[in-house]
């Protein structure tokens, strides 16, 4: 069987068996089953538990071999000593993919059992996700087969995590931050399916626009494959990676956590650059940049304009642009003339374009239209500082409308809004409606900088 079909069964299974399903709240086998049912999975569900007649109103079976129909995916939640026997039964049943939640394998030095698990799986043409994971979610298929939070917002960002606890925490965090995800995949020990396999699948997935990865390390000897295969992925989709274990002590901690080779940080830096992967240092950065890629087009050129109502944030944005390689355009006399019409007489049409603290929503709308319609401008950074005369929600609504009107221009726009509670609400509204918005000028500029970095990489590769 081809790799593609098995991964298809991982993301879009027609039927799922939960081996070790439980009737008792607080047990992982209970939470997993509850999440699958409540998130709205439409396929068939088969709880496997030798001691239960039914679980959550669904008929239970003593063994997977007793299930009358075909089973695409088996989620294994039984103790480590029973996993190999269960894997063998799944093979006989014709299961396509095993999602092994159970811990107690190579991460605790039990390498032998882990090798054996993969051997059994491959003998029957099955693939293995895990072991030592919290599960998988794929929102377009209404699949939440994790023991994380039940609620997952649908959207275009895929998140792959080598850490279970962090992955679960970030699942909850994405809901709070209103970040929509297409997939959340827990990788664990990567005994069989690894980050590359999942990334390749997602690079072809129409519901995913950007791939984010929390990576602790690669298996020894897999570096070259990682670079070669991820190059193909980044030609199709942007990939943002947080590589943990940058420090010496962090690397030691990563090695003892998932048994992976953290390796020298410089080596990873070079590998990421070669593969066209964007490296983030914090989870906040990773999702900041992912938001921009998820909702805006890839830039066509370097020339960037900043439109602001505050001199101070304009200066901060200018500094950030210089620090991060964002080229600020020198507007032509014609462009300055058009911009001048969009501001009070004491404003400045230079770049940053200062609409002044007296700016109205109309001023912003006019300036944005000029920027979108000008051939000189490739990218737009729109900044706002809370003033008494300009309501941030009203401004946000106007920016959304302009962004929607000019989508065909393929010019990325990012927003930085600085202020209090109502400004925060405006930021949420912008993000919800496809304008990546941040609570500071710098975060907006850096997010655009990463899109430009990706644009340059693609141009360079296409020239080769």
Short characterization:
This protein is an alpha/beta fold. It contains 16 helices and 19 strands.
List key phrases describing it.
464 residues; alpha/beta; Rossmann fold; 2 domains; seven-stranded mixed β-sheet; five-stranded parallel β-sheet; 16 helices; 18% strand; elongated
Verbal overview:
With 464 residues, this protein is α/β, with parallel strands linked by helices. It contains 16 helices and 19 strands. The strands form 4 sheets. It has a 7-stranded mixed β-sheet, sandwiched between helices. Helix 3 (80-93) runs parallel beside helix 4.
Widest sheet: strand order?
A: 9-8-11-10-12-13-14
- Give the terminus-to-terminus CA distance: 35 Å
The CATH topology annotation of the largest domain reads as Rossmann fold
Strand content: 15-25%
**Number of β-strand runs:** 19
CATH H-tier superfamily of the largest domain: Succinyl-CoA synthetase domains
Structural class based on helices, strands and sheet pairing:
alpha/beta
Query: What's the tally of helices?
Result: 16
Topology:
Layout (H helix, E strand, L loop, with lengths): L2 H9 L3 E5 L8 H11 L5 E5 L5 E2 L2 E2 L13 E4 L3 H14 L3 E4 L10 H13 L3 E3 L5 E4 L4 E4 L7 E8 L2 H13 L4 E6 L8 H9 L6 E6 L7 H14 L2 E5 L4 H11 L6 H11 L2 E3 L2 H13 L8 E5 L2 H13 L9 H8 L12 E2 L6 H13 L5 E7 L6 H14 L7 E6 L2 H12 L4 E2 L2 H23 L1
Parallel strand pairs: 1-2, 1-5, 5-6, 6-7, 10-11, 10-12, 12-13, 13-14, 15-16, 15-17, 17-18, 18-19
Antiparallel strand pairs: 3-4, 8-9, 8-11
Helix pairs in contact: 3-4, 6-7, 7-9, 10-16, 11-16, 13-14, 14-15
């Amino acid at each position: 069987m081809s790799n593609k079909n098995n991964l298809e069964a991982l993301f879009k299974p027609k039927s799922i068996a939960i081996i070790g399903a439980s009737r008792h709240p607080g047990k992982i086998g209970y939470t997993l089953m509850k999440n699958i049912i409540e998130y709205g999975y439409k396929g068939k569900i088969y709880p496997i538990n030798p001691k239960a007649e039914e679980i959550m109103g669904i008929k239970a079976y003593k063994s997977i071999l007793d299930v009358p129909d075909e089973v695409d995916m088996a989620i294994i939640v039984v103790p480590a000593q029973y996993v190999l026997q269960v894997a063998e039964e799944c093979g006989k049943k014709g299961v396509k993919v095993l999602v092994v939640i159970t811990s107690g394998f190579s991460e605790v030095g039990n390498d032998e059992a882990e090798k054996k698990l993969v051997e059994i799986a491959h003998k029957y043409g099955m693939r293995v996700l895990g072991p030592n994971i919290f599960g998988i979610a794929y929102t377009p298929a209404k699949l939440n087969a994790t023991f994380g939070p039940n609620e997952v917002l649908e959207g275009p960002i895929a998140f792959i995590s080598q850490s279970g606890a962090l992955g679960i925490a970030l699942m909850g965090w994405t809901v709070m931050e209103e970040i929509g995800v297409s997939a959340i995949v827990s990788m664990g020990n990567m005994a069989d399916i690894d980050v590359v396999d999942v990334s390749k699948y997602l690079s072809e997935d129409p519901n995913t626009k950007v791939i984010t990865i929390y990576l602790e390390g690669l298996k020894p000897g897999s570096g070259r494959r990682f670079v070669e295969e991820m190059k193909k992925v980044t030609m199709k989709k942007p990939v943002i990676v947080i590589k943990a274990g940058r420090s010496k002590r962090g690397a030691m901690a990563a090695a003892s956590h998932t048994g992976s080779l953290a390796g020298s940080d410089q080596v990873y830096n070079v590998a990421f650059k070669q593969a066209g992967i964007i490296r983030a240092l914090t989870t906040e950065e990773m999702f900041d940049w992912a938001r921009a890629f998820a909702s805006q087009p890839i830039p066509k050129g370097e020339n960037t304009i900043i439109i602001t109502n505050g001199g101070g944030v304009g200066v901060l944005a200018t500094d950030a642009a210089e620090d991060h390689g964002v080229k600020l355009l020198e507007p032509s006399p014609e462009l300055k003339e058009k911009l001048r019409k969009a501001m009070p007489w004491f404003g400045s049409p230079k770049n940053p374009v200062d609409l002044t603290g007296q700016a109205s929503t109309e001023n912003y709308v006019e300036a944005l239209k000029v920027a979108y319609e000008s051939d000189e401008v490739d990218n737009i950074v729109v900044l706002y500082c809370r003033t008494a005369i300009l309501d941030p929600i009203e401004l946000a609504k106007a920016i959304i409308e302009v962004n929607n009107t000019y989508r065909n221009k393929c010019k990325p726009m990012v927003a930085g809004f600085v202020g209090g509670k109502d400004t925060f609400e405006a930021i949420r509204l912008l993000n919800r409606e496809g304008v990546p918005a941040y609570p500071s000028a710098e975060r907006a500029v850096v997010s655009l900088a990463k899109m430009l970095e990706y644009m340059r990489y693609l141009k360079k590769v296409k020239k080769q």
